[in-house]
TrEMBL record:
Coiled coil: none annotated. Keywords: Membrane. Pfam families: Beta-prop_RIC1_2nd (PF25440), RIC1 (PF07064). This is RIC1 C-terminal alpha solenoid region domain-containing protein. Residues 765-939 form the RIC1 C-terminal alpha solenoid region domain. It comes from Penstemon smallii. InterPro entries: Ric1 (IPR040096), RIC1_C (IPR009771), WD40/YVTN_repeat-like_dom_sf (IPR015943), WD40_rpt (IPR001680).
Amino acid sequence: MYMAYGWPQVIPLESPNCVSTQQIIYLKVVNRLLLVVSPTHLELWSSSQHRVRLGKYKRDADSIQREGENLQAVWSPDMKLIAVLTSSFYLHILKVQITAKKIHIGGKQPTGLFLMNVSLLLSEQVPFANKNLKASNIICDNKHMLIGLSDGSIYNISWKGEFCGAFFLDVRLNDKSVSNKIYHHLSNGLASGGTQSVHGSNHVNHLVSETSAVIYLEFSITLRLLFVLFSDGELMLCSMSKKGLKYTESIKVERKLASGEVVCASLAQEQQILAVGTRKGIVELYDLADSASLIRSVSLYDWGYSVEDTGPVSCIAWTPDNSAFAVGWKLRGLTVWSVSGCRLMSTVRQIGLSSVSSPVVKPNQDFKYEPMMGGASLMHWDEYGYRLYSIEEGSSERIIAFSFGKCCLNRGVSGTTYARQVIYGEDRLLVVQSEDTDELKILHLNLPVSYISQNWPVLHVAASRDGMYLAVAGLHGLILYDIRLKRWRFFGDVTQEQQIQCRGLLWLGKIVVVCNYVDSSNTYELLFYPRYHLDQSSLLCRKQLLTKPMVMDVYEDYLLVTYRPFDVHIYHVKLSGELSPASTPDLQLSTVRELSIMTVKSHPAAMRFIPDQLPREDILRSDTSLSSDLSSREPARCLILRMNGELSLLDLDDGRERELTDSVELFWVTCGQSAEKTNLIEDVSWLDYGHRGMQVWYPSEGVDPFKQEDFLQLDPELEFDREVYPLGLLPNAGVVVGVSQRMSFSACTEFPCFEPSPQAQTILHCLLRHLLQRDKREEALRLAQLSAEKPHFSHCLEWLLFTVFDAEISRQNSTKNKATFANHSISLLEKTCDLIRNFPEYYDVVVSVARKTDGRHWADLFSAAGRSTELFEECFQRRWYRTAACYILVIAKLDGPAVSQYCALRLLQATLDECLYELAGELVRFLLRSGREYEPTNTESEGLSPRFLGYFLFPSSFKKQPQDAKSSSFKEQSAHVASVKSILESHANLLMSGKELSKLVAFVKGTQFDLVEYLQRERNGSARLENFASGIEMIGQKLQMGTLQSRLDAEFLLAHMCSVKFKEWIVVLATLLRRAEVLFDLFRHDLRLWKAYSITIQAHTAFAEYHDLLEELEERLSSTVNSE
């Protein structure tokens, strides 16, 4: 799959002069050449490693004035001719020739680029020039081209400049009496066919009246299909002759594909999928192999962007392998999607899936520049899929090229890996660093210049089974990379390197298998090289192949090679001698199986051996004789992924094929892929990914489970984000590694940098549930123990319990109205709880699941998990107070308010002792709320309840009650509320007595304790200061006024002391804070206090730092006395 990386590159174009439209009209990339046609000229660029302009053709002003600007263009398949239709309907045919002038760029290596000459061969006005018509795009084959016209006709022109006439399509599909034929015009005006004609005219009045204009044409000579789009949004599918566009009489309308909203279309020939863009900004995918049925639709609606933001679809471009497609919109943005609907890349800035309003960008907004901000008019991929060339709407000055890396899709003749995830670009590898799954990273590994400069681009990448070696092949040869040592290994002889044209790579243990194309004899062969030496002298074996292989795979000592149409050959590889430079090993291949399967299905895109699976207990035994015996057996089955996404299982013994599922993009065979005991996915047969997300497949019970009719069980509960595309697996972590796009902006660049961001998603909960369903509790426990140190283990256990409990609730609801029978077997929910109980995360997991489910079902959960009071007590004894607090609500629901209040009071005292004041505040609020909800109260106590609530929770804002009323209200309040009052006051006394002022402030803020009323009552009690000198010294040590938080705490206390006019505390805190205005306001009304303060400050040397404050106060007080 395709992921964008790096900054977009800009290819500057020559600006057109004196034109009415500033718009590029044609863009195409083929065979390392890029053709761009503007209204006044065309340019040819190299699209290889070096972007260089190779040639151009510029029309003069007289030609433009006389014949009009360039309007439409097309490049012949052999790249020798270019046809251009001007606005005055002149046809220009230009010839492209390669000159002998070679281009040299700085460096030792030659570029292989030559200048090109473009010359005019033909300039002639077309026959329909005077009809005031408009033309569609131009399509062509090697001999002819077709142009759609605004009168509904299609005109045929040969590359020799011959005007072959126009024809109309009969779109009356419902009229069985009239065949769906076409009505022709002879060249230059003689009409034939049809019931009415106008002699001497270039066109006829065809049978279908009021035909709309033809605005877009698309065709495939391979599929023999022509698509015609009319201006009213009608899209017609037509069949045509395999001989090409010349024989227009064979064109026949087969069906109407879409109607009313279509504005463009693009065909994926290999997948046989038609992508249709609509006026609503939506792209619809149609399966041409299945009666043109609608597969799915994709748009940016779910990302908060409507058609008002993006406009209608303007262009669609498929990748060369048809696995993804780019969509450009008229007003804003460009996005790349996979066929399954995963958003791989987007230039539109991400705002999240939950956005309420559509993010219309305003011109005066201060934001970094967004690529394709004004929309996209044209797009084209290069032939390798490494670059997407795009033209901005209304632009004629530049081409924007986006760089893409390709994920290893496990298709074709290149191997796969499970321990190393790699994205490969044209000259680099993007390797996922998965040693620490807490934070996956992407490493950019640039290929050596000495190799890639001569063999650009990268074509094949394969990782060894352990993921420690990478084999990389470009245009010629191959190189190896040792990830541990960070070293490259090359062919020592460049001549040998150039003789290899790699068409596929596999790893056979420590041996690299190269599928090589021999140019001189047009044959294919397999070359076996040891990884320690790339040289002809070390070649272990050379195996000639019958023809070009379609798919290949390897498992242990067995090699699978499949040819077209569907011939399967399996070889056994036997290695004699030690594989080391000191010895001379010998490798022999012997054919063990040949199958020739007749089928009408689409061709295989990938095939993988399915080894027989051992139970985990056998794998983990110290005696490995059974395991080694099984691994030496020839695999008898293989998985087949076809080009149309169909996944099936092939029995190699009898050739029977069983369909499994469809709409699959890629899959991983996981069983038998890792010999390590820490492999967490050994019990899985394989995983697949498609538009449904990730699916996990398991074998069923039995001596030979694959022989049974129900041999597979599917676990569909592993969903994948539509922005994350899976790359591979980490067996030892039990996670699937995916990648998504993120953009980083910089002030020094015009465009943002596209950065692939790896993400991990666990599948451990699926594996554990599967084992428990089969009553393999010991295996499940062993697997969980292997995973206990892995990241997100607690989340996996929580997700496991949640899914099992949710399924249990659904099962109970479905059987509620049915007769039930006693079933004394242990339920899956009980098995799950028994499993998780072995881990300390159990208490957190259970209560977290309870909080995520309806309280009506808590009784069922805790009947399996254990009594809520017992779980609370265990957490309390272990001092896991936060977890214990979560059980309070469950206890209130299941055991009643009295029990929950008792537990909450115990927990409140414990949290205060541990200074967990936020948690204590939540407990206080719960206790007061439960008092109101559950305790019976008479009318008098109800009238006094606000007083109590304010005492505990809010600053005192009520009028002071008379002492007798206050005492009577306390008598009437519930017992647990009185206990709360007692606990809070006791803790406040403890803190105030020890002058733990920072803790006191945190306590008041956390529990909303009414400090004002407390200070009024304890003025002569615990809050009393003995004397000023000792008070300021002790409080200064406790608060540490040098820190910001301590100063904020002192300000908080000072405000409360001022509200109760607590002079002793005001003097101390204001002095520590140097709040002269507070002290001045206090002393000017009490000069006796001022004298005592002044004497104390001057008498103690420890208070010398406050002498400046004293002088300021003395000056202000003196001036006040004098003025009075």
